[in-house]
Amino acid sequence: NPGNPLEDYNNDAIMEEEQQQNLANKKGAPSNVAVKLDNASEAIQVLTSTRDFWSNTWEEAEPCAAIDQETLFDVESTVEMVLDYLDHVHPASLLNQIMAVNLSMAYFHLRVAAVNAELLRIRVVDKALKQLKDRTQHALNLMNRDVIHGTVPGAPADKNQQRVPKHASLEAIRACDDACDALAATEIAICRSMSLLHKFPGQYDLVHNMLRRTDQETIALPNPEGRRGILSAIARQQYQQQQQQQPNPSLREYVLRNANDSKPCQLFVRQKAATDPNNQEDGGGLMIALTQTHF
Description:
- Its main location: cytoplasm.
- By secondary structure, this protein is mostly helical.
- The protein has helices spanning 11-19, 32-60, 75-88, 91-116, 123-149, 170-199, 204-211, 224-243, and strands at 251-257, 265-272, 285-292.
- The protein has three domains: 5-57; 89-154 and 165-214, no CATH class; 251-292, no CATH class.
- It has a three-stranded antiparallel beta sheet with strand order 1-2-3, with no helix packed on it.
């Protein structure tokens, strides 16, 4: 429901606007503030009357079961109209509508995912979403133009040729392709941002600096302190991996396949480790099986 029209007005604003009134106005002419207040009061009266009308109508109406109510449309005729439309619609127009819905929904879902994960604070993601929005809007405008032009005859290439509708243009197809490329780039940026923020929570600038680098791009570190910092981080990671010794697996499985396609076969090996190395009776086991396939 619409709100109160007087909410945008307060005493300070009214007094300030009254003081700024032009002294050259004619005497007796209503001020701008008075006109605004009169319009707001009239809007409140109309709004109140409308609400009272529908409230009284709802209270005075007699309840009626849905099965006894008159239908607003004929189901069979509506289905026939839809089938007739699908039967006569041009495939390009149908694909045009489907493409428009897919692009709009894709941008909507990516935007919601970025907002919920607070990824708009990363400049790379924000820039990718803006580019996706612009390309999607451009593609929608061109597809809308093609839909309109598809209903009217187009200009013939030659005077002797018949005018034919233009259902799809190269500009719209190219714009859709650009929108799909932007969609893929935005999806990759969002996925990488989520993964990096999971490992570096709250470090949005670091994630931005990592994402703005292209694949296989060499990062120059002229500062010796930076190089020593990276080497120290690698050394700490390797030291932690060595300290965290994983227990030996209780079972190992190996599958060896023959590379010769004319004689396909595979060797399956299962090795069970001993649960107690000091116990000679439980020494584990080894099972080997050869499988050959005949064509």
